[in-house]
Amino acid sequence: MAPSAEELLRRNTVGINKETVSNVASTDFPGHFPGEDHAFSIERFRSAFSVQFHRNELNDASFSLIGIDASLANAFRRILIAEIPTLAIEDVYIENNTSVIQDEVLAHRLGLIPFNGGRDGIHNFLKWYKKPEAGEDPYANSFDWNTVRLELNVTCTVNPDAAPNENDPLKAYNHAHVYAKDIVFVPTGRQVEYFSGDNAIVPVNPDILIAKLRPKQTINLAMHMHKGIGADHSKFSPVATASYRLLPLIHITKPIIGADAEKFQRCFPQGVIGLEKVTREEASKSGSGYEGHAGEYKAVVKDSMKDTVSREALRHPEFEGKVKLGRRRDHFIFSIESTGQWDSDELFLEAVKHLKLKCKKLEQQVINMVQ
Amino acid sequence: MPGRTKAQADASSQDADMQDVPPSGQDEINQDAEMRENAEAEEEEEEEEVEPQRLPGSTDTAASFEFTDEGHTLGNALRYVIMKNPDVEFCAYSIPHPSEPKMNIRIQTYDGTAVNALKKGLSDLQDVCDVVAEEFWTKRQQFNSEQGIDR
């Protein structure tokens, strides 16, 4: 006994009402609807699942996952944020810092700067770093395959060429501002093979302001970068944002015509609602609600994906009972903005791979547990 | 009764009543001292990763499992696929305390053992990942060639 298309749409829609939300939980489990088979089958999942790309740039990708449950989509999102490794500054060895910015604040600022470099080197050559135990040599575990050394050595001086009454510190002094581009990468050991030329380790954005100096002030320090994950510290998170939203649905149940249609259009972001002329055919059909309105404008849904689901339309009495808002339960519009160390689309694939690997390891351990 | 890890076997060889045991299935810290005396056991402990543990009070068809270093990411996804198994009567997950890196999954079955339901859940989840990755890559290639993105 297969449910009707109407019933399937109802199950697939999260209702967004004036003051409440309804039909929130998934119901696609065996035994929930008598006589229906909801058992997991990979063939059924494969035929129902699809991906649609909206945008695919290095630092910004957007795509839809359709036909997947929130628990799985959310697992991918969470892995993107917290479990994909990146390289970031972890230790700062301050030789001299006479700037007004304190050592610990400076170290924190440095840690948050995103870096990029040869992908093969970052993803494959560099491995995890293990912190030495207390009392051990602090550099005991530092090797070319787990530690990247950076240096920053800047001193501010008076610019002799500047006009005597120059007020702009950037012109009056040299190095009044310390930027991310002032950080120097020092390759060690085999890093030369992986990180030379275009593959050098450099800040993603060279113009990040680190500190401001005045003449005779100095910052002289060395930094060690290690691999880490976002769960430990958000500086290791490979994404600026990784989020999804459900596809908005707008269902106009009764005609909205004339001045009302224009007002209705203004209740939504631009491009969501379009205005079309009522055709002679529609107007001649009795019971359609368009009788005698031929040539007037009616509101139609043009692109519900652009909607923000502000519920503004539900606040006006003239639209009461004429429109239903909702969201599609199994249509996730993902948006991934990478911080630069990975490509955004590559990141999602990495998240899927990560979840699979996790399950594979645990499955083997469960098999061992039974024996 | 399916055995637990070898390290635990010498601490308590039999399943105890739920009331008599600490709420966690993992070794207590004070057992470390005992372990150090036994060089062999220590070696084994180092080689093995921490496995999901069957919690005390479990039977074959109704068991709780404790996962170390897992959270909502795996917990909710695994709960969903296990619930999709028609042999499963009940499945839920919880994180008993936010400052302990532990996640518990409870499985009760109509048919078959809870361990098998867990195993099937983990393998189904891997299949899902394969399908998602494959479809994602095909659509990505398609989109890139349509848009002239060369990467």
Automatic annotation (TrEMBL), chain A:
One Pfam family recorded for the sequence: RNA_pol_A_bac
GO BP field: DNA-templated transcription
Domain DNA-directed RNA polymerase RpoA/D/Rpb3-type per the UniProt entry, residue ranges: 60-365
GO molecular function: DNA binding; DNA-directed RNA polymerase activity; protein dimerization activity
UniProt main location, coarse: nucleus
GO cellular component, one term: RNA polymerase III complex
Sorted UniProt keywords: DNA-directed RNA polymerase, Nucleus, Transcription
Chain segments annotated as coiled-coil in the UniProt record: none
Subcellular localization(s) per the UniProt record: Nucleus
Membership in a protein family: Belongs to the archaeal Rpo3/eukaryotic RPB3 RNA polymerase subunit family.
Protein name: DNA-directed RNA polymerases I and III subunit RPAC1
Source organism (scientific name): Trichoderma lentiforme
Automatic annotation (TrEMBL), chain B:
Residue stretches making up the DNA-directed RNA polymerase RBP11-like dimerisation domain: 63-134
Subcellular location: Nucleus
Any single biological process term in GO: transcription elongation by RNA polymerase I
Family annotation (SUPFAM superfamilies): RBP11-like subunits of RNA polymerase (SSF55257)
GO cellular component, one term: nuclear DNA-directed RNA polymerase complex
Biased composition regions of type Low complexity, renumbered to the chain: 8-20
Keyword list, A-Z: DNA-directed RNA polymerase, Nucleus, Transcription
GO molecular function, one term: protein dimerization activity
PROSITE patterns in UniProt: RNA_POL_L_13KD
Principal localisation: nucleus
Disordered as annotated region, ranges: 1-61
Record field: compositional bias (Acidic residues): 40-50
Superkingdom, natural source: Eukaryota
InterPro entries: RBP11-like, RBP11-like_dimer, RNA_pol_Rpb11_13-16kDa_CS, RNAP_AC19, Rpo11-like
Stated family: Belongs to the archaeal Rpo11/eukaryotic RPB11/RPC19 RNA polymerase subunit family.
HAMAP family cross-referenced by the UniProt entry: RNApol_arch_Rpo11
Protein name: DNA-directed RNA polymerases I and III subunit RPAC2
Organism encoding this protein: Trichoderma lentiforme
